[in-house]
Every structure is written in structure tokens, then in C-alpha cells.
Write a sequence for this structure.
């Protein structure tokens, strides 16, 4: 995993409509993401069907390697024609981003995308092409880690039209707002939430149009190393510690004995954090070079229960203890490596289980499987 492509999206239906006339489709390949925002003609059920067909056709064809002319021709031939306006389409924006940053954007009658790099809006300068009688904008450039592309339906730039704002929010106003919130270092979903909340406020809770936001963010993966339990052989203590310190990203030590070994190998001292006392979870510690130091099996077992209940770090309970802190780090990370010592603590051994099936191993295996199911890249190395 060299780089990670985050996506997020959010929609509001036009006031009085049950279905949103916008649709978003996201397809992933081995090294790329194709994200499509389609805005169906009108609103309600018909617009929803038009945009859903458009988004699905485009995403599927691009995923299979179709060219832009092939995609546009298929969409044109597939969608029904509006009798009143004599047009047969929903508007659309296509964003294709590869892990190496190579980016391709196609825009047809939707508001221009917003491209932010280092928190500032950058001009893309698309090229105009004509395909099947339709004027379409194409853009090609290289994204860098931290860059964000935001596509919107016209409900965003019309927010507040005739109510709070005479002319609506307008593209330049949205761009200014995006630069203001860039200091929050938001993930893809966070950008959508902030922008959608602003639109809802401008519409005073009664959107005058279907309103959608699609965000694509390229970033370096967040890595985490978790060391749990002392190695079976004392001669491996030095190698164990070297591996912990050699890993990039954040580091966590779980277990008093493990912490003592690592601190000794590093020539440092662990300080117990008495500011965060919890009636159930043992206190955490501080060790230079480590993001977190916790007690062992009690804390890790409670972390497993939190991971079963919550899928996002933002949803975790607002408590300051080792289990919540560890769960948050695991949920925020993309690439996680567990360094697990196989020395058996007799206090944690169930006599009815085989010798190697310690409670520690069972808990780590469950955490491993949960994180893998959520798309994390997880490895375990035993000592």
C-alpha cells in the first residue's frame, strides 16, 4: 500500500421529495478509484432513476477500461429523451485517481470541481472536447498526498437562492469556504459533512434542489505498530525492540512486562499516567518514542469489545482510558502491524484450552479479523 485514496459523499433531497435526484457511484480497482456524481434531470423519482443509471453505467464502463467516447455514447443511447426539453441525460462528473497520483476528470454540465492542494484552491484548466454532440471538459494532472478534489451538484452553488442569499452561494463563495475549513485537516467524509451542513443551513432546512457532494482525497497511509507480550526467548528482546523502533508511524506498547523490556532496551523510564484513572481500565503510561503505553490483556480485551461496537473513531465514547485510546488508534490507521510475544502468562491461561491457545492470542486474532474486514492492511509477527 503506497498511497491511499479516500472517498466520501453526502446528499440532501429536494424539500418535499423522498428520493434524491443525484446519485454517486464509486468503483475501485487494484490501483485506482473511479467516482461518479450524476445529477438527474428535474427531481424526484424520475431524476433518481436517470442519475442512478448514468452513474452506474459510467463507473462500470470506466472500471472495465472503456474510453470516454464509448462511455458518453452508451449513456446517450441508453437514457430516455425528455419530451419537453428534447434532452436525454443527467449531468455528470467523473473523477479517476490512481495510487501514483495520476488524475483524470470529466465534467459535463455540472459545476466545476474544486481542487485543493495545501489548503488552497488551484486552477485545473480543463480542455473542451465534443463527443456525440456534447461539449465535455477533460482534465489531467498529478495529485500529491494531502490533495483533495470536491465535486458538487448544482444544489450546492444554488444554496440559499432567493432566501438567505439573492444569487445563491455561487462557486467562488464555496471555494472561499473550503479554504477556510482546510485548517481542520479533514478526511474525505469530513469535507462532505462540513459542506453539506453549510448547505442545509443556507437552505434553512428546506433544500430548494437536490444537493450532493463527492470528495476524493489522496494521502499516505497511516501506519501503526502494536507490541503485545514479551518474546518467548529473552535473547529476542533486543530484536523485538529494534523492530518496534524501525517501523514508521505511531507505536503502541501493551503490557507491563513488554513495556519494561522495551524501556530497558532503550535506556528509558516509563511514567504512569495518573491523570486518567478509570474504575475498570488500568492506567496508561508514557514512554518516549511511543504514542501509547497500556496494560495488557484487560485493556486489549476491552479494546476488542469497542471495535465490535464502533466502526469509526469519531463514534467512540468520550472517555479517556487505554482501551478507548487504543481503539481510536486502530480505527484511524490503515496499515497495522502486531508484534506479539508468545511468552505465556499463567494467570491468563485457561486449563481447558490447548497450551498455545492463550487468551492473549485469541483476542489478538479477533482484533486482526475485525480490522481486516474493515479494509485495514494487517499483519502479525510472533516472537
Amino acid at each position: 500500500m503506497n498511497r491511499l485514496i479516500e472517498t466520501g459523499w453526502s446528499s440532501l433531497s429536494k424539500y418535499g421529495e423522498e428520493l434524491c435526484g443525484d446519485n454517486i457511484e464509486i468503483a475501485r480497482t487494484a490501483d485506482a478509484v473511479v467516482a461518479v456524481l450524476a445529477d438527474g434531470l428535474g427531481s424526484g423519482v424520475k431524476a433518481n432513476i436517470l442519475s442512478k443509471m448514468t452513474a452506474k453505467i459510467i463507473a462500470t464502463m470506466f472500471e472495465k477500461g472503456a474510453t470516454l467516447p464509448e462511455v458518453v455514447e452508451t449513456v446517450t443511447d441508453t437514457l430516455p429523451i425528455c419530451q419537453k426539453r428534447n434532452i436525454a441525460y443527467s449531468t455528470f462528473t467523473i473523477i479517476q485517481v490512481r495510487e501514483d497520483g495520476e488524475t483524470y476528470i470529466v465534467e459535463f454540465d455540472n459545476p466545476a470541481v474544486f481542487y485543493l492542494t495545501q489548503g488552497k484552491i488551484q486552477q485545473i484548466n480543463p480542455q473542451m472536447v465534443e463527443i456525440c454532440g456534447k461539449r465535455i471538459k477533460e482534465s489531467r494532472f498529478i495529485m500529491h498526498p494531502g490533495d483533495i478534489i470536491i465535486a458538487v451538484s448544482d444544489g450546492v452553488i444554488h444554496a440559499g437562492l432567493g432566501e438567505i442569499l439573492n444569487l445563491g452561494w455561487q462557486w467562488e463563495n464555496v471555494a472561499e469556504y473550503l479554504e477556510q475549513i482546510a485548517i481542520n485537516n479533514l478526511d474525505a467524509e469530513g469535507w462532505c459533512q462540513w459542506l453539506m451542513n453549510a448547505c442545509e443551513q443556507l437552505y434553512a432546512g428546506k433544500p430548494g434542489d437536490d444537493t450532493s457532494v463527492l470528495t476524493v482525497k489522496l494521502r499516505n497511509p497511516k501506519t501503526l505498530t502494536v507490541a503485545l507480550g514479551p518474546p518467548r526467548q529473552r535473547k529476542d528482546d533486543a530484536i523485538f525492540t529494534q523492530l518496534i523502533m524501525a517501523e514508521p508511524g505511531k507505536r503502541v506498547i501493551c503490557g507491563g512486562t513488554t513495556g519494561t523490556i522495551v524501556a530497558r532496551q532503550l535506556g528509558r523510564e516509563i511514567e504512569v499516567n495518573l491523570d486518567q484513572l478509570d474504575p475498570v481500565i488500568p492506567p496508561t503510561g508514557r514512554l518516549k518514542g511511543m504514542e501509547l503505553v497500556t496494560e495488557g490483556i484487560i485493556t486489549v480485551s476491552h479494546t476488542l469489545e469497542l471495535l465490535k461496537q464502533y466502526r469509526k473513531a469519531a463514534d467512540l465514547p468520550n472517555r479517556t482510558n487505554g482501551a478507548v485510546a487504543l481503539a481510536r488508534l486502530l480505527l484511524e490507521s490503515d496499515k497495522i502491524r502486531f508484534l506479539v510475544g508468545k511468552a505465556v502468562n499463567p494467570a491468563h491461561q485457561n486449563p481447558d484450552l490447548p497450551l498455545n491457545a492463550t487468551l492473549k492470542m485469541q483476542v489478538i486474532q479477533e482484533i486482526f479479523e475485525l480490522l481486516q474486514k474493515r479494509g485495514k492492511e494487517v499483519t502479525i509477527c510472533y516472537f
